Amino acid sequence: MHDAVNESDEMRYILMLRLWHPDLTSVEREALQFLYDCLEAPALVSNDPAEKFRASQTVEAMKAFPALQQESLGFGGKTQKGKNKKTNRGKGKGFGA
Fold first, then answer.
1. For residue 79, what are the contacts with CB-CB under 8 A and spacing of at least 6?
2. Residue range 5-61, pLDDT digits in tens
3. Which of 6, 26, 31, 69 would suit a FRET pair with 93, their CA atoms being 20 to 30 Å apart?
4. How many other CB atoms are found less than 10 A from the CB of residue 56?
5. Cβ distance 87 to 93 under 8 Å?
6. Which of these, 5, 26, 32, 18, lies nearest to 66 by C-alpha position?
């Protein structure tokens, strides 16, 4: 973990990345990921099964969110070739048809 303090009156931007060291085994990465998940959802280590289940669902949703953003190009998104997506105009389906 890292902590940064800006004691000046100037705006400071920080780029933070979470990277795995290449020498970590998959078991070590899974253990560290569980620790990071527990920081976000402490109920993962709860003795209450329902609370633990809700926490695990929260963690799974947090992990799925970036993947969902990558799949969706959003409003006015570009395809990989740089062209706008084609829509089903005139077929009576979807918003604005």
1. 73, 85
2. 889 999 988 887 878 899 999 999 999 999 999 999 999 999 999 999 999 999 999
3. 69
4. 14
5. no
6. 18
